[in-house]
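Table S2 (text version). Query chain:
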Amino acid sequence: MLKDLSVKDFVAETASDSPAPGGGSVAALAAAQAAALLGMVANLTVKSKKYEELHEEMAKYADECKKYEEEFIDFIDKDANSFNSVMEAFKMPKETDEEKVARSAKIQEGYKKAANVPFTVGKTAAELLDMAEVLAKKGNKNAITDVGVGVLNCKLATIGAFYNVKINLGSIKDEEFVANLKKEMAEILSVVEKRADDILKEVETIIE
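Corresponding structure-token output:
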């Protein structure tokens, strides 16, 4: 599985002529890195006596980040495999009218799955900003830049994942499905852009 590759091998596989891992898997990896960095800041805050009154709160954030991290790591392979159902559907027989209808339905089902996987990655990655906001204000200031890089990865994960949603929407005939997903993505991106920029400004204020 892709998630079990070394960093060097994962990068090499991404650079190869293999279609996976692609942008969706890399977006999932960025989300995992965001969760890991925020978890590290929480753990460093717990470790410091200077922030003793925050230890209990930060320990909860560390645990939560770990769960997100593991979820996103699994999505590296889920995204890589999400298009498989589309490819399988294209191989279905299309000799009779019944076969053509069944094949078309399976293709559409596959494209929806291929869109839903990165949509979930982007939507879930946006949730990390709740913790990032708190960590930027309360977390160990020696790790404030790690909060910043975590937020950048979060932003990358959301935008990148949604790119992969949009490319699949072009092949989906269900207009209501397409409209709903586009609307949700636009709303999420609007919030992510503003919140991420606000957190990054706070980070920059501290380090400059």
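Notes on Table S2: The radius of gyration is 20 Å. The chain has one domain: 21-207.
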